[in-house]
Amino acid sequence: MPRRIVIGIRGVGHRVIDSVWRLGYASRFFLLTLLKSGTSFRRFGLIIRELYFTGVLSLVIIVVSGLFVGMVLGLQGYETLQRFGAESAVGTMVALSLVRELGPVVAALLFASRAGSAITAEIGLMKATDQLAAMEMMAVDPIARVVAPRFWAGVISMPLLAAMFSIIGVFGGYMVAVVLIGVDEGSFWSQMQDAVDFRYDIVNGIIKTCVFGVAVTAIAVFEGYDAAPTAEGVSGATTRTVVTSALAILGLDFVLTSVMFRGMS
Amino acid sequence: MTPEALIETKDLGFSYGDRSILKGIDITMSRGKVIAIMGGSGSGKTTLLRLIGGAIRPSSGYVKFAGKIVHEQKRDELFQMRRKMSMLFQFGALFTDLSVFDNVAFQMREHTDLPESMIRDLVLMKLQAVGLRGAHDLMPAELSGGMARRVALARSIALDPVLIMYDEPFTGLDPISLTVIGNLIRRLTDALGMTSIVVTHDVQESLKIVDYVYFIADGVIAAHGTPDEVRGSVAPFVHQFVHGEEDGPVSFHYPAQAYARDLKLEGSFA
User: Fold this and answer.
1) Domain range spanning residue A200?
2) B60 pairs with which residues across the strands?
3) Measured between CB atoms, which of B79, B90, B95 is closest to A139?
4) Chain A within 8 Å of B199 (Cβ-Cβ)?
5) pLDDT tens digits for range A72-129
6) Residues of chain A falling short of pLDDT 70
7) Cα gap A58→A115, rounded to integer Å
8) Inter-chain contact B91–A129, Cβ cutoff 8 Å?
9) Model confidence at B1: pLDDT above 50
10) Structural domains of chain B, with CATH
11) Is B77 on the interface with A (CB under 8 A)?
12) What does the DSSP assignment read for B114-135?
């Protein structure tokens, strides 16, 4: 049916144009957020307040998840390494896995689902209940007053949460490998100390968390601000935040890993 | 434009795409008056407020506020202009993460360098004016609908605006709250020398407090006059609206094709 084909092609075209338009709109919104960040830094109290909601309130989930991930790594690492008689390297494996990959990626995924979704829902509901419109009418720019403080709070708290995740994860690995299984404590720590390079492993890990922090929070604030002002609109935006953030984190992780780690140590 | 006119619209029109919401609206609003804009749901009343506040741009004509054309102002100038106007949203639109006190103090903290002690005094005075000084510690979620509307009213007079726009201030209120809000609008307008525009479809309550009424129907000014003129009007639209009658120029049915044709009965009984 030629008519159906035409409609199909037209539909695809519409979707592509819509996506490109939305990407452009999101980029413009991101730039505006950066440009209007002055107020947030002049009145740092605005950021501190948001740091509590995005950072402090995410601590529990980050700490508990970090502990379990570290414990699982300790178990799996020991199980595999002892086959080769290299169980003393379990500390190295746990630390490198966490600092390079699992710390930044898992913490960012948790951050997106805990804090990112909350930011989207909050801004979306503020829009649905006319709070953003009321602010505009009071001659206060919602991007400067509502969006920018939340964005910077997310960017600041993400690396700190990921660091916390890795530290607790290493502790979890230690608990399982050394305390539970009985790997030699001295070799656990000394091999870790020897193998983990500050600039190559830790700094690269921190760079990753910063990139993820910007990506997740930028997606969260944009989706909230762009949400249709209805119950379905806000719930759809919250879902999009989690899904898009997860895809962005994993995609960016591959790009960053391929640039940072090429087997040269 | 007469010297005392605060707002003047000329040939004002607005459309969403092909759908025309308002067309050819000419209104002059004097200082110190309470003016009602009435009309059925979806008649474009709120759109008119948004045009006056500069939230949307007109498709034709203009709105003048204090002698300046609103949509020609740059963003900074528009924000300057908005400091002189205020809007009370349908359900108050209080900031849910701030207490009643902080809601009323919001604009003072954003736009002035007043010391916190003076802000405290001012906020308590504004809350006293709406009878809610004792509720300054509460959060918006703890307020009833009428109280939230009164807090929003206190917030909207925080910086002593020259114009307040009320978007459906009477919706969903019990009879006591309704009278309280109505009287507050009148009293505050007179005491502060402001101009108030009340968008509403609550005829009886608003006719008690307003100085002049404009009726909007199908995007145009269908009638206008003082409350007494409105009550005595024999114009079919005004009569139907004021007395809430089902039959009249405003049809009960949304435009549709013939009923029989929709039910595929045409010709069945021929």
Assistant:
1) 36-260
2) B13
3) B79
4) no
5) 999 999 999 989 888 888 999 999 999 999 999 999 999 999 999 999 999 999 999 9
6) 1, 263-265
7) 7
8) yes
9) no
10) 5-92+162-262 (3.40.50.300)
11) no
12) --HHHHHHHHHHHHHHTT-GGG
